[in-house]
Amino acid sequence: xxxxxxxxxxxxxxxxxxxxxxxxxxxxxxxxxxxxxxxxxxxxxxxxxxxxxxxxxxxxxxxxxxxxxxxxxxxxxxxxxxxxxxxxxxxxxxxxxxxxxxxxxxxxxxxxxxxxxxxxxxxxxxxxxxxxxxxxxxxxxxxxxxxxxxxxxxxxxxxxxxxxxxxxxxxxxxxxxxxxxxxxxxxxxxxxxxxxxxxxxxxxxxxxxxxxxxxxxxxxxxxxxxxxxxxxxxxxxxxxxxxxxxxxxxxxxxxxxxxxxxxxxxxxxxx
Length: 271
Fold this sequence. Notes:
Blueprint: E1 7-13, H1 20-36, E2 41-43, H2 57-60, H3 69-81, E3 84-86, E4 90-93, E5 100-107, E6 113-118, E7 124-127, E8 130-133, E9 146-149, E10 152-156, H4 165-170, E11 176-181, H5 185-203, E12 206-211, E13 213-215, E14 221-223, E15 226-229, E16 235-239, E17 244-250, H6 252-261
Parallel strand pairs: 1-2, 2-3, 10-11, 11-12
Antiparallel strand pairs: 1-17, 3-5, 4-5, 5-6, 7-8, 9-10, 12-15, 13-14, 15-16
């Protein structure tokens, strides 16, 4: 049973475009809104700095470890707004010159980098004219990452990772699962909410999903529907579409209550 106090958490939803500076300004404004609402931990969506019709654009803005304007922005925003900031995802250097790592970077409220997760599962989809192949420009990560925050133990994942429950089991017992995403409209309409609620129910923890949500300048439409879900699978807060912020309180007593009444995590037989 965790001893952390009730902690307000927030998901930022964006409709990012090809202008990195404009996206960072939008992100900063929304982080400020979350902080003003009392959030101690704020999550940005996947690809918050850039969504472009040119899939190679992210390669041109990729950053090396510890250096670059996107990382500087995250560090500064966390410190100025006094929040733990989970930076959605941003393009980081890969081991090959024509790809990036799709990485979540975490900064505490003093601007110190405390965790990094590189997206493990790379999205591939084809239906009619709709086609995606992340492996063409992204190099997969291979490490499961969680960290201790004011709201307890936090597990990191990104978008397509949602479809692989073994990743979340590998995190161990967490208080909060975070999933920045840019789900397509097609797959989001079919599977987004049901998968997120399943991850909360089976891991008996809170789930916070921070999404891209709307029609982007390149014509792409993302599903949105940023959600905060409790350990019983109840939706506490949501934003269907468009830029904005959703907040809810993570209550350790609620986690303990659910796990005591239905001790499914202790009943596991397979690992």
